[in-house]
Structures are given as structure tokens and as C-alpha cells.
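User: Could you check the structure of this?
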Amino acid sequence: MRKDHWQRVIATLDPETEYEQIARLVAMHEFPWDSQQALSFALFRTYAVPSIGRLLHDTGEFTGAVQKRHDDTALLLETIAAEGLETDTGRAGVRRMNQMHGSYDISNDDMRYVLATFVVTPVRWIERYGWRRGTAAEKLATVRYYQRLGRLMGIRDVPADYQGFADLMDAYERETYVFDARARAVADSTLDLFVTFYPRPLRPAMRRFSIALLDDHLREAFAYPRPSPLVVRMAHASLVARGRFVRLLPPRRKPKLLRDTHRIRSYPGGFMIEKLGTFPATMPQERDLAS
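Assistant: Sure, the predicted C-alpha cells are below.
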């Protein structure tokens, strides 16, 4: 297989109608590690919105059962993407998310913001650290995929294009980011989990590394100490260097899924998508899925 094999396959697909196929190839063949890291950072940045950070803290899931909460979120999003939004399994995953979100008083603005982070953060990550630049078709496919997911989740006023998502995310962060002790506790718990994915001697360095990658306004919202300029440069340079190394590797023949890595620990015997996530005492009635 030529290095540009999947790029040539993607070039034959229409991002307006075949956006799911393109999104899968990008996330599971071309940039699996980058996509996984970017989505983790996307979720992490949502904690700095006080209404989101406080809710996650008050459920107790992100401080008392952070590994399971991480696994459930990753498996839901990955399974929906891998199986397809229009399949029975994909719809079961969307239904499970709607049931969980419907159990809490979450504003449409917060839901739109989280959706925007899923669109914008991976695109920006790949532009900065990927082994190659993303293409216009790949960016459009990402937008169309999350627009469809947003409709299935009942999110209103979803942006019409990538720039709309980027503007929404940046503006919402300027308007809402502020320090909150409960949000900081959720961030700390998530970082504590993240460093366990690495050998114990490396964990203090990986925590500093992660904080060094945060945007200044995000780091300030959590009141994390400002890393030295040298540490920041080294953190970003290491990811750029990784991308250059990956450029030398052959194309990935099989899709790489997070469920197959050591980071998912809660379901050694497998999982059922209908059983993932939280089940509050009073569950809302199922939200009708968009057509």
C-alpha cells in the first residue's frame, strides 16, 4: 500500500453524502492517535465552562468513578462513529446519550459548545501536529458528521459550517471561562487518570506536559501554574516531531480503535452500548430521534 492510499480513497468520496466514511477513515486509519488525543482535550476544555464543570462534579462520576466515566464516553462516541449514525447500534448509542443528557438541566448553549469542541479541536490538532495537513473534504465531512449527530441529539441552532463552529467555540470560551473550584476538581481528577496511562516514573512529567499543551485561557481558567516557555516549546515540539516520524510509517491497514487499547479498563469482558453511562433514579422518556 502506498502512503497516500487512504487519501486517494477519501478523494473518491463525497463529503456531503459520504461524510461518515470519510470521518471513519480520518479517525481510525489516518490519524487515530491524534483523533483520540484531540477528543480527550476537547472534553477537557469543556470543564472550564462553570455550568458544565459544576454539573460533572455534582454527579460524582468524574471524581468518584472517573475511569468508568472516561471509558463510557469514549466507547459511546467511538461505537457510534464506527457503526454509523444510521445503524441500529449507532442509534442505540445516540439514544443512550440523549437519555443521560435529558436527566439533567443542560442548556442548548452548553450542548452546542460541546459539539463545537468535537468539530474544531481535532481539526486544529491535526493542522498543528498531524503527519500531514487535513484536506478541505475531511474538514467538511467532520462538519457534516457532527451536524447530523447534533440533530439526532436535538441540539438547536447548530452552525452551518466549520467557521461557524470555530467562532462559536472561541466566543463561548471568552464569555464563560472563569475559575470554579468544582470544575478544577473535575480537571484534576481527569489529569490524575490520564497520567496512569504511562509508567509511574513518567507520571509527574506527563502531568506537566499536559498542562503545557493547554491554551493560556484554558490553563488560567483552572488556575494551573504557568509552565516555563521552555517546557511549552518542548511539549509542542515533541508532538510535531511525532507527526514527522509517523509520516515515515506505512499506511494503517486495519482501523485502530480506542477500545482495543490499555486505556479502556472497565469492560474486560466486552460491553453493551445500552448499558454504558449513568442511570439516574428518574430517567426521562426517550427523546424522538431526528429523521
